[in-house]
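Reopening this one. Same input as before:
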Amino acid sequence: MKVDVYNREQACKLIPDANKCFISIWTPLGDWSSELDYNDSPIKTGWADTLKLTFHDVTYMGHKDWVLFNHDMARKIVMFIQKNINKNFVVHCDAGISRSVAVGCYLRDQYGYELKLNAWPTDEHRNNLVYGTLMLYR
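Same output, byte for byte:
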């Protein structure tokens, strides 16, 4: 099985595939995203299944309004993956470098998926809060 990781711009250009599941990760509205960004969502009908999560690309609580990745979000991702375990996945976040890469690395390391990074050549910048929290669900 395979997991493809993209940035949002790349993901917006994808044609939905009924054999793939789509995980869409967003920055909370009003911060680094604009309303226009949200209206140009890559989430379209035609995927086998979709999951959308919204949280900041940070690893510590540095600002009172930041939304950190948490155990409830991790549980949602794990349940979504387990529900669709025999399908390929597409994952995106704004830049395709850290949050989505962390989910892709989790699929690779936990379930043996082949990881293809499309926005960044390595997984060195994966968000370790996302990856570490997901790895608690082994």
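So the earlier flakiness isn't reproducible anymore. For the record, The chain has five helices and five strands.
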